[in-house]
Amino acid sequence: MNKKLSMLLPVIATCGLLAGCGTDYYTKDSTVFVAKNGSVVSTDVEDFDTAAYKQDDLQSYVDKSIDDYNKKNDGSIKLKKLTVEKKKASLTMSYASTDEYTDFNGTKLFSGTIAEALAAGYDFKTDFAAIDDGKAKKCESSEFLDETGYKVVVYEGSSNLHVKGKILYASVDKVKLVDDKTVAIGDKYSLLASQTTGTESATESTEAVKADATEGTENGADDSVSDDDILNSVKQDNEVTFDFDSEEDNSAPVSYITYVIYK
C-alpha cells in the first residue's frame, strides 16, 4: 500500500484504502498499473472496519483529499471507484503521470526510457534477471542498458507492479514474476526462486482483465478506466463530515526499489 493512502485513514491501523475496481483494473491485490505514456492507475486493497466506519464517510474523506490536491497543484488525479464489501475496501485512482503519483502518494515511481532513468539518477546497481517464457535467468545490467527501444519502471513501493508491455528484465530482490506483465513485491520473494508462472499463481495474485476486454457497467454506467479517463480526470466537490485524524498511525509502509524493463 502506498504511503499517502495509508495516511488518509490513520485510525485504521492495518486497514486503509482499497482499490481494485473498474473492468480493466480489477485485482485482488494492491497493484500499480503503468502505461507506456507514463500515466498510472493504482489499485489499493486493504481490510476495512465496517463496524466503526461507513463507506460514505470514507468516500467523502478521499474525495476531499483528491480535490484539495488537484486545486493546489493543478492536478488531474481522479477517483474512479470506491467500494466496501465484506470488510474489504477497494479504491481505484488514476494519475496523468508518474510524477503526479509520486507527489500525491509519497511513493517514488518513475517511467521512461533507460537513458532517461540514468539521467534521473537511477544507477541500476542491483542484481537483475532476464525473463524468457516465464523463466528468470541471472544477468548483468550491461545486457540491456544500451538498448534504446526498452522502457523501464522504477518503483519504491510494495504493491504489485503491472506494465503495458512484455517484461524482459527485472531486479531480483523482493520480486516474483506473476505473468509476463506483472511482478509481485514482498519480503518472501526472489525472482530467481520463482522460475515459472502459471494460471493458478497468476489468478491468486493479480487478476487484471485484458485491455481489449468488454467494458463492464454498473447501473448502466461505464466503470472501466480507459486511457482518456487517466488523462482527463474530473474533480469532485464533497464536504468532509467525518474526522479520521483523532488517532494517528505514523508507521511507515515497507517499500522496496524495483526495476522492471519491458518492451
From TrEMBL:
<dbReference type="GO" id="GO:0006508">
    <property type="term" value="P:proteolysis"/>
</dbReference>
<dbReference type="GO" id="GO:0004252">
    <property type="term" value="F:serine-type endopeptidase activity"/>
</dbReference>
<protein>
    <recommendedName>
        <fullName>Lipoprotein</fullName>
    </recommendedName>
</protein>
<feature type="compositionally biased region" description="Acidic residues">
    <location>
        <begin position="220"/>
        <end position="229"/>
    </location>
</feature>
<keyword id="KW-0732">Signal</keyword>
<feature type="region of interest" description="Disordered">
    <location>
        <begin position="196"/>
        <end position="229"/>
    </location>
</feature>
<feature type="signal peptide">
    <location>
        <begin position="1"/>
        <end position="19"/>
    </location>
</feature>
<feature type="compositionally biased region" description="Low complexity">
    <location>
        <begin position="196"/>
        <end position="206"/>
    </location>
</feature>
<dbReference type="InterPro" id="IPR001940">
    <property type="entry name" value="Peptidase_S1C"/>
</dbReference>
